Amino acid sequence: MAFLAMVALCLAAALPAAAQVPQAMALFAEGHYDEATRILAPLHDDPQALYGLARIALMENRHEAAANLLQRALEKDDGSALYHYWLGVAWGEIAETANPFRQPLLALRVRNEFQRAVRLDPNFLPARFAVIEYYLLAPSFLGGGEPLALREAQELMSRDRFQGHRAFARIYTHQKKLAAAERELADAVREQPRSAAAHDELGSFLGMQAKNATAGFAELESATTLDPGYMPSWFHIGELAAATHTNLSRGESALAKYLGHIPGDEEPDLADAHYLLGRIYEEEGRRDAARDSYSTAVRMDPTTRSFAAALNRLR
Fold first, then answer.
1. What is the C-alpha to C-alpha distance for residues 315 and 310, in angstroms, rounded to an integer?
2. What's 32's DSSP letter?
3. How large a percentage of the chain has pLDDT more than 70?
4. CB within 8 A of 214, min separation 6: which ones?
5. Which domains does the chain have, with CATH numbers?
6. What is the signed CA dihedral for 129, 131, 135, 137, rounded to 10 degrees?
7. Can you give the C-alpha Rg of the chain in angstroms?
């Protein structure tokens, strides 16, 4: 057990139950799943603790257990958009490897949970985008279809123009209409030129989708200048550096900055940041540092195959 995780575990034991869950979730975000479980497991009547245990189960590839824990959490708090959203995620993971005869029923469960989350909280963005993704990927006989995705994006546009532009960009990207997607994100920057999030979204798209690394880096750097505390931009600089094998020193420092904070649910995982840092180290010929970063990524997320493959490559 890492020293800091052990200290956090000891401190959590002295806290009242209501304060223990945030401490456990902080440990979870840092990849200390065993320590987080020790705090949460005794709190079996607390829906937030059950939710935390479900998130750990998902990271450990125990999808059925995660669904059961989230259903128990919803028995205690059925009005939580967050729990319904993650139950939809769990059903989706189960569907990936389920018997083909069971998959249609599971797909409908995914849709229903995402839609329920949106009804409970129309401004809950992960659920909104999950519904759009479902409509884009599911066949019509399971309630999918691009017209439904477009309607959902228009509804989101009426609530939040930036997020609406993001939604339309996602749909156009799915349709391989990259010029239209880029226009949506450029419009978002034009409408909100002081928004770090808008510059970040456009920069990531330009670099990773449009394959224009120079323009992508410029937009991402604009985002960090506008708001150095908007952490996804630092991650995306590192991601673009690793993907393009350029600006490696800048990508390394950006990822180091990102790894210095605990990401929220809508921000990239620390495991992904460690993996990208490993790729940069490997590109620079620093095999030992790369191996350490890949090892940390695997410890934090043992289910992502690319992490394990990268680590095995250097053993």
1. 9
2. -
3. 94
4. none
5. 194-259+269-302 (1.25.40.10)
6. 70
7. 20
> What is the predicted pLDDT for the residue at 187?
98
Instruction: For the chain, give the mean pLDDT.
Output: 94
Q: At what angle do helices 213-226 and 232-244 cross, to 10 degrees?
A: 160
Helix (H) or strand (E) run with residue 216 in it:
helix 213-226
Going by pLDDT thresholds of 50, 70 and 90, the confidence category of residue 18 is: low
Q: How far is residue 294's CA from residue 311's CA, in Å, rounded to a whole number?
A: 5
Q: Are 64 and 39 spatial neighbours (Cβ–Cβ below 8 Å)?
A: no
Instruction: Quote the CA–CA distance of 69 and 154 in Å, as a whole number.
Output: 34
pLDDT band at 16 (very low <50, low <70, confident <90, very high): low
Tokens read off for 42: 């005794």
Give mean pLDDT, residues 175-204: 98
Confidence at 17, pLDDT banded by 50, 70, 90: low
CA 179 to chain centre: 25
Please list, in sequence order, all residues whose beta carbon lies within 8 angstroms of the beta carbon of residue 201, skipping any fewer than 6 positions away: 162, 166, 169, 185, 188
Burial 122-143 (b: 16+ CB within 10 A, else e): eebbbbbbbbbbbbbebeeebb
State the amino acid at position 106 in one-letter form: L
- Where are the alpha helices (H) located in 33-177, listed in sequence order? 33-40, 47-59, 63-76, 81-96, 103-120, 125-137, 146-159, 161-174
Overall average pLDDT of the 97-108 stretch: 95
Residue type, 49: A
Q: Give the integer Cα–Cα distance in Å for 156 and 72.
A: 30
